[in-house]
Amino acid sequence: MPGTLWAIAEAGPDGHLTKLSAEVATLVRGLGATAGRDVAGVVTGAPGAVAAVAAELAAYLPRVVAVEAAAAAASPIAALAAQGAVQATGADTDASLFLGNSPDGRDTAGFLMAALGVGVISNAGGVAWDSGPVAEKGVFGGRLITTSSFADGHGIVTVPLGSVPAEAAASSGVVETVALAGAGAAPAVKVLERVSEAAGAVQIEEAKIIVSGGRGVGGAEGFAIVAELAEALGGAVAASRAAVDVGWIPYARQVGQTGKIVKPEVYIALGISGAVQHKVGMQGARTIVAVNTDPDAPIAEFADLFVIGNLFDIVPALVAELQAHKA
């Protein structure tokens, strides 16, 4: 019997199914219809809480396995998610597994690669089916597109946000709840600190408008002007790695190759040079606006609108104009 196509889902900080996981489930359902294969989903988490996430996932897939992990609070979520996925897939050695290309998703894929002995195609912007998953992905900052598949027809694929629009199935699937076997196998983690974002803060993965600051904002205090423009536009604040590395803004706001991949309607880059590592994270935006004092900044090559000037002169004038129109 041909292997099942599995969507491995995760919950967000709010305890609900992430938008990216909903997109992965939609992708898997579509591939299953093309391939004529069964599709299913699996999500692993704390007893009780995981049931709600599984119910949300069942809106997209005919069958969902909710794996309850008693050690969820003290173990790496990626390690537990991989254990849950291995347990759910069981003896299905021909299965293909699909995950979101989030930080936890990438870690989970690594655990699964070691546990199952199969290959991984990461950050696949487009996935089709031809006797197995066929993935397209950009390399060299999107200058080239590669097409990859698995020699034996199955493996692990991670996909970025926005690859497909999330679309619920005509009817909800069934949820099977099981306990994680050998829950102690994942290494224990000592939690030193928990940091929560301010209530109501817009998550950059979900935002339609993103205002991002880089080295050019000059310091942590410079992000006040970034936040002011984001608030005026109803968007989210983000940053380049340069700003994150020096501690001006939390890592959760980083866009780029080692941060988050975003695809907003509008991406406004303030004081960001546009190095290839940052471009990878935001090049999917529908419209890119950049403000920079350097006319030769790399971002000028791919921005839809490139403004040469001092952001501390330009942004306050823009905010004032926006506020005037709202009045």
Could you explain how this protein is built, in words?
- It is a single chain.
- The chain has 327 residues and is α/β, with parallel strands linked by helices.
- The protein folds into 2 domains: 5-185, HUPs (Rossmann fold, 3-Layer(aba) Sandwich), CATH 3.40.50.620; 209-326, Rossmann fold (3-Layer(aba) Sandwich).
- It is 28% helix and 23% strand.
- Strands 5-9-4-1-2-3-10 form a 7-stranded parallel sheet, sandwiched between helices. Strands 12-11-13-14-15 form a 5-stranded parallel sheet. The chain has a 3-stranded antiparallel sheet with strand order 6-7-8.
- The mean pLDDT is 89.
Provide tags for this entry.
Rossmann fold, 327 residues, 5-stranded parallel β-sheet, alpha/beta, globular
Strand content: 15-25%
Q: Give the CATH level 1 class of the largest domain.
A: Alpha Beta
What's the rounded overall pLDDT mean?
89
Helical segment count: 8
Secondary structure class reads alpha/beta
**Main beta-sheet annotation:** 7 strands, parallel
CATH architecture grouping of the largest domain: 3-Layer(aba) Sandwich
Q: Could you list the spans in which at least 5 consecutive residues all have pLDDT below 50?
A: none
Order of strands in the sheet with most strands? 5-9-4-1-2-3-10
What percentage of residues falls in helices of 4 or more residues? 25-40%
